[in-house]
């Protein structure tokens, strides 16, 4: 009933626009700007409100009920939503269009969510929130190691998923302000372009949004020791439900990527505390 009311409101908006056109002297009945596209998206459930689109979210789950539920709540918050029922369909959507965030179920038929996430990370740093009915700690660790930005265990509240989507997008899209690029240890970190380049080899380092944010926070304060809990708050936000091992996992991946690109090892472990950016670090 709620969905029908919103759809009816969308139709009325178009109807009012058309009637307003006829009240003008010499007016000719015309379709309002982008009416066709707008109505197609209304019928498809992609836009159910008048507010500006907040972002484009792809929901990947083999259960139609879950896709419909998440679509309803996300659309109500101003997101444009696409759907995929399996891994291959998800990769086709991702390769053919630009998405701001992907909500990805792990237990998909055929190509599972692990493999989908792995394929995404080969070419894109699009944020990924994983959904799973399995709450095993190793599943969470593996998901984060593959580059997931957050992890939600079923059953879940759709409002919680929407809140997580907003939180991840806020962190990814936060503006760099007046911060300038940093050049340390033969690595250039550019916050505006969110790019990392090893100057000696000329290699660009492909990082996930979280990996980049983690490197940026450490590089901005060389020598300062960051506690794991502090990094969790800075990078993942206070509303993140994971634990400090998430930081360890991302630091490991960050070190590996920098090393493969030819960068020196400059992220030092401070045992029992956390990490720091150390220009003379060799191990």
Can you walk through the features of this model?
The protein is an alpha/beta fold and 283 residues long. 44% of the residues lie in helices and 17% in strands. The protein has ten helices and eleven strands. The protein has helices spanning 2-22, 35-43, 64-76, 87-96, 113-123, 137-145, 158-172, 209-219, 228-236, 245-260; strands at residues 55-60, 79-84, 101-105, 128-132, 150-153, 182-184, 187-190, 195-198, 226-227, 267-270, 274-277. It has a five-stranded parallel β-sheet with strand order 2-1-3-4-5, sandwiched between helices. Strands 6-7-8 form a three-stranded antiparallel β-sheet, with helices on one face. Strands 9-11-10 form a three-stranded antiparallel β-sheet. A hairpin with a 4-residue loop joins strand 7 (187-190) and strand 8 (195-198). The N and C termini lie far apart (61 Å).
Helix content: 40-55%
Rg (CA only)? 22 Å
Number of helices: 10
Largest sheet: 5 strands, parallel
Tally of DSSP β-strands: 11
Strand content: 15-25%
SSE order and pairing:
Elements lengths: L1 H21 L12 H9 L11 E6 L3 H13 L2 E6 L2 H10 L4 E5 L7 H11 L4 E5 L4 H9 L4 E4 L4 H15 L9 E3 L2 E4 L4 E4 L10 H11 L6 E2 H9 L8 H16 L6 E4 L3 E4 L6
Parallel strand pairs: 1-2, 1-3, 3-4, 4-5
Antiparallel strand pairs: 6-7, 7-8, 9-11, 10-11
Helix pairs in contact: 1-2, 3-7, 4-5, 8-9, 8-10
